[in-house]
Structures are given as structure tokens and as C-alpha cells.
Amino acid sequence: MWGLFVSIFLALYGLMCYYIWRRGRQSLGKPASRSLRALFGIVFALLVLPFPVAEMTEHLLPRSVASWMAVWGGYSMIMVVYAFLILLLIDVVRLLNRWLGFIPKRVREHPKTPLTLGVAVVILILGAVIYGGWNARNPVVNEYEVTVNKEAGSRKELRIAMVSDIHFGPVIDAGRLEPLLERMEELKPDLVLLAGDITDGRLPPGAGRELATVLGKIEAPLGIFAVPGNHDRDLRDDEGELMQALEAEGIRVLKDRLVPIGDDLYLIGRNDPRLHEGPERVRLEELMKGIDSRKPLILLDHRPVDLEEARAAGIDLQLSGHTHRGQIFPANLITALIYEEDWGLLKKGNYHLIVSCGYGTWGPPLRIGNRPEVVSVTMTFQP
Predict the structure, then answer these.
(1) Shortest CA distance to 322 belongs to which of 229, 256, 235?
(2) 48 CB neighbour count, 10 Å cutoff
């Protein structure tokens, strides 16, 4: 399935590149000099080739070089997509103008209009990706308040910090986690939850211990808990390096497991339904057999799915990630259609769902249209 998805995307990428090439050559005009055409060809090649080259050489190059190529390829891929969308929009406007005639003739037929428009497109695209690169490196804290109509012993409130979709790997290295540690130090949460996609896929030897060492610096009196996401291939094997390193740092990975948090509440951690080669996901109803549902129930699930199942089971708060809120506009329009809630707070009766758009990035190291975040939740208990 993944191979089919990649093949379709590369085919679409090729069509977008061809469209940009044709429109770029048309903008140059027929009298364009040979040197100008050569310059366009060089710029075009630097724009479209890094992404496929980075994809094909990812497993052949040293880690440092592969990381650099992944960043360059991600930037160029988004520039291609944005160039295609903007040029397509321009052509739609031109087509509408044929019928409605709203563009003045002196603008439409001015010899410098194509070049001016081309420069404006380049500036707009460069501005978007430069902002997206900066934005991806500057996470914010988004705060939520949730009231649960249950007792939690003598506890009146619980402060939770939740982080999803770190995607530690070639792009998000240990240095990129320093702001995360700073935010955690500022928040001083009672409980820290990692909602999946901690990694960006299979890690090289030693990288799992490096990641666990960084995450182990986080302090939380009630503990740090994690669930696997669809990218967390190193969390399949309980005896693997990453699992062992996380456990050594006191970070417990819950794969369809329920644990009490003190004597006051329960935390239920779900396995990801598409963690390849992993065990089948256990039904929530089975996980909750025999528990005291009068206590507050927190569900940690990488994907914001099976919401009705969670609500019917009496879950008070579900914390999820996975969506990235599309990560790069206009992909957020797609995630909004796929998920009932792709970012923020959803409340249905006593059931609350909070979806994070994530801390790191997948694919292009950019965020446009949303901010990377750490989620802070204050749960108040009012029986």
C-alpha cells in the first residue's frame, strides 16, 4: 500500500514539474536569449530534482548527509507544490477573464507583465517556505481546561503535558528537542504523556538511547507514559533498543495496557491500529474490564479515531495526535474532512477529546498554517 502511495505521488509530482516547466518557458517569451533559457533550466533543475534524489539516496548516504538531503528535498518539494498551485490559480483567473474581462487591457498586454508576475510568484513561494522553516523550529504551548464530574480522591486538579508526533530521526535530532525540555520545565506538569510517533521510523543503532536520554530529562511526579504511533517501528519489539532505553529512563510504553495513576484515576494506552507487524489492537471494552469507572479515565491514543467507542466506554479525556493538522496549508482542508476533530478540543457530554497538531514534522521540515505545540491540560475534578 505504501509503495502504491509513493508511486502515485511521484507521478503527480512529475506532472506538476512538467506544468511548471511549460508555464515557465512560456513566461520567458519566444525572443528569450539562450543565456536566459539556460538560467531557467538550471533553476528549474535545482527546484525539482532534490526531492526525488533525496528519496532515492536516503538509505545509501551517511546519516548526516541524508539528513541534509532530506531537508533540502523537503523544501524543494513544497516549493514545487506551491508553484503548481499558484500557477494553476493564475491560469484559472486568466480563463475567467476571457469570459468576464475584469483585467485591464494595459495590464494584460504589457510586455513586462509575465516577468513581473513570475517574480511575484517566486517571492511569495520563498516567503512561505522561509516562514515555514522558522515556524517549525519554534513550538508554542497551547493550554486547555477540562472539568470532569468525578472524584479523584483528595486531588482537585491534575496538570498534564502532552506531546505528540516528535518524529525523531534524520530531520528532528536531539538539538531540536531542547525547546521541548524548556517548555516542560516551565509547565512543571504532574503527568507527561507522549501520544505516538515519537520516532520517524527505524532508528540507527544508538539513536534510541540518545532519544531516551533526552526524554528522560523531563520531570513529572506521576510519571511519563507513551503509546506507539504508526511511525514507531522500533516500539514493536519489547526487547528492542528504544523500548529498553525508554524503560530504563522511567518512561513506560503502553500498548493496549491500563495503569492506575496513584489511587485516584486510570490511564489507558492504546496500541496503534496500523503499527505494521505489531499485535492486533485490543478492544477498549476488554481493556477496561473490572476497573472502577467512577474514577476519572484518561485515554492516550495516537489517532483521534473510534471516538464513539471511547465515549460509550465512559472515557473522560482522550488525548491524541497524528493529524499534524495537515502540517502544510492547504493539507489542513483534507485532515478536517477525514477526522471529526483534527486539532483542538471536542466535547460530547462528559467526553473530552484534545487533538494536538504535533511537535515535529514529517517529510518536509516545514509548518505553514499551524504552530508546533506542547499541549498543557488542567483537569479539574468536581463530583
Answers:
(1) 229
(2) 22
Across the range 208-236, mean pLDDT stands at 95
Q: What is the 3-state secondary structure (H, E, C) of the chain?
A: CHHHHHHHHHHHHHHHHHHHHHHHHHHHCCCCCHHHHHHHHHHHHHHHCHHHHHHHHCCCCCHHHHHHHHHHHHHHHHHHHHHHHHHHHHHHHHHHHHHHCCCCHHHHCCCCHHHHHHHHHHHHHHHHHHHHHHHHCCCEEEEEEEEECCCECEECEEEEEEECCCCECCCECHHHHHHHHHHHHHHCCCEEEECCCCECCCCCCCHHHHHHHHHCCCCCCCCEEECCCCCCHHHCCCCCHHHHHHHHCCEEECCCEEEEECCCEEEEECCCCCCCCCCCCCCHHHHCCCCCCCCCEEEECCCCCCHHHHHHCCCCEEEECCCHHHCECCCHHHHHHHCCCCCEEEEECCEEEEECCCCCCCCCCCCECCCCEEEEEEEEECC
Domain boundaries, the chain: 2-135, 140-273+280-381
- Compute how many other C-beta atoms are within 10 angstroms of the C-beta atom of residue 367: 28
Encode pLDDT of 23-50 as tens digits. Answer: 888 777 666 677 878 888 898 998 898 8
Whether pLDDT at 102 is above 70: yes
Q: What whole-number distance in Å separates Cα of residue 52 and Cα of residue 76? A: 10
- Model confidence, pTM: 0.91
Cα–Cα distance between 236 and 275 in angstroms, integer? 8
Residue 152 phi/psi, 5° resolution? -130, 60
- Whether the pLDDT of residue 137 is over 70: the answer is yes
Residue that is written with C-alpha cell 505516538 in the block:
196
- The answer on pLDDT for 278 being more than 70 is no
The per-residue pLDDT for range 78-88, each reduced to its tens digit, is 999 999 999 99
| CATH code for residues 140-273+280-381 | 3.60.21.10
